[in-house]
Design brief:
Layout: H1 3-13, H2 21-52, H3 57-71, H4 96-108, H5 116-122, H6 127-138, H7 142-160, H8 165-171, H9 177-188, H10 192-199, H11 209-216, H12 226-231
Helix pairs in contact: 2-3, 3-11, 5-6
């Protein structure tokens, strides 16, 4: 390589085309910090469930469901097709790891306000680029996917817990029960209450360790939910 070529290469490496190693390092540190905090939270929830199992079965179940939610969707029994497994990964769309990161983040933050801008930053895309790539790879616009997952989680909670619809609405990221009702009816053609009555034969048992474990595997509640606060988790 000539001296001029070498100088040009060094100059380019210092310019906008170079990888911002400091930014990548900071992002990695942030991810590790979040993972460490989640691990500590899971440990606390499991210990709390063990302590209250005999005296408060419902509280123990809520702790375990929150722990499962923090561990991510792969730790829970699947109640829906994995969109990443059936995604289309071609040029112009998301890479498989990008799709996995986005949907995992969505599932872990369904109770929070989710914005396309935040999801795009997870894979270092612009908002418009991410929206196009997400739809191409997974078949849904990002916010349509979020709405679908919220309704799926609401169904899981309605069939596996005795929680009120007002609580379920908040746990699943809806503004209130009316918001849940409108969204649910638009997709399923009936109200959540009617759907619940037609799909639940009997309420889950509130006693026994088997009831705790069975409910924990099928109802992904999030930490910080009203139900969890009442349980003292």
């Amino acid at each position: 390589m000539s001296e001029a070529s070498a100088f040009a290469a060094v100059a380019w490496g210092r310019g906008t085309g170079s990888v911002d190693e400091a930014a990548l390092g900071a992002q990695s540190d942030s991810i590790r910090s979040t993972e460490d905090a989640s691990a500590r939270r899971v440990s606390h929830l499991v210990r709390r469930a063990i302590l209250v199992l005999e005296s408060d079965c419902q509280g123990a179940r809520r702790c375990l469901t929150d722990a499962l939610a923090l561990l991510g969707p792969q730790s829970q029994e699947k109640t829906h097709d994995d969109p990443v497994d059936r995604g289309v990964f071609q040029p112009g769309g998301l890479a498989r790891w990008q799709a996995r990161r986005a949907v995992s983040y969505i599932d872990a933050h369904l109770e929070s306000r989710l914005e396309v801008t935040v999801l795009a930053k997870l894979v270092s895309f612009s908002k418009s680029h991410f929206s196009r790539a997400f739809k191409q790879s997974l078949g849904f616009p990002p916010m349509a996917y979020v709405k679908m997952r919220r309704i799926e989680r609401a169904k899981a909670l309605m069939t596996s817990t005795n929680q009120q619809l007002t609580e379920i609405a908040l746990i699943c990221g809806f503004a209130d029960q009316s918001h849940l009702n409108r969204s649910f009816r638009k997709v399923n053609g009936m109200s959540p209450g009617r759907w619940r009555r037609s799909n639940v034969q009997s309420a889950p048992s509130s006693s026994g360790a088997s009831a705790v474990l069975q409910a924990a595997g099928s109802s992904p509640a999030r930490n910080g939910s009203p139900a969890q606060e009442r349980a003292g988790c």
